[in-house]
């Protein structure tokens, strides 16, 4: 079975292979080679038989084709109610066909499945809330991505992302040395303004172990510094691990389930090595899903839980405000219309909607917080989730998908959007660049630093 130099069934395992794939600008040769990539039909059918078990098959069989999932999908709505965008139709056209044909499908079919799985669904699972049978088509699409990845039919950027995790145990080329040096640099950079500020590395038995998104040390090191400053103000006993600090999972977006297990195992090994009382993850939705919701099952943990209690950053912020570890200066509360982006992965899929509203009650002056419509568990995806943000092949479709969030924000009248999730933050940034609606967007950390009361002993001396 011919396989290309770049497009093949072998996951990226080495830095050399990763750099080679990166050299193929925009995946030009990669996608050309994909047109000739043959399907290993026997392997595909064997994989389906081994992994497509009772729940998935039941969901396929009980779908009544009622269409109630259609209006739940923002991609269906924004694409003029194209029947090809109905969630149930997308799933049935891919998985049902693979099963009925017992894996005997063509290269052209697999490429079309790839286009559907990554550009017509963000795995947000909003449709599951409207299905009368409780069918979760977001989960089913994730499963289909895994089948496609195993055959080499995966977007160029997703194969790169998977390779980054396999080579660096991070979604970007941030080595252990890079990470530790960034921690030291950010502590030194801010110690004059924040006396006693530290970013402790590999401290055993701390109350908190903090994990983050590799984009922070790579492109936004100030985010790491802001987390450190808020822990410092709150008087927390905390640490970061030298290895296992990266909690995101582009492997999950890519359908690389073996790579996803490798990634979460790395984080869990850090927890078991440092034995913190609990772990706090950064403002990232899919990172939380990968390490807290899905990760325990990838790692084969019978409890269905990580090795230590593991919470999202919004949970720590709400707790710190509630207990007085962080106190908001009333004069600095937000006094302009502000709205909040609900991340699919920790709001809809992990029930943290009220936690984020509690935070808003502390940060925003009464009367200035405006909800999107719909909101909370029913909010729409940011428009760039599930890897959609980062795939150049589908940029035009992604930009169109941003219109739903654009219209939601415009309807609130708010000029500030608080977005405690990296993917959502990116999508809203790109939304503003694309449509120029005159908004600002922010994580929680910089806003909090600008409004919390600073204990006297932490204030710089004159």
From TrEMBL:
Location of the 4Fe-4S ferredoxin-type domain: 60-135
Cross-referenced PROSITE patterns: 4FE4S_FER_1
Signal sequence range: none
SUPFAM superfamilies referenced in this protein's UniProt entry, alphabetically: alpha-helical ferredoxin
Stretches that traverse the bilayer: none
Sorted UniProt keywords: 4Fe-4S, Electron transport, Iron, Iron-sulfur, Metal-binding, Transport
Domain Cysteine-rich: 338-424
NCBIfam families: sulf_resp_HmcF
Protein name: Fe-S oxidoreductase
Organism annotation: Desulfobaculum xiamenense
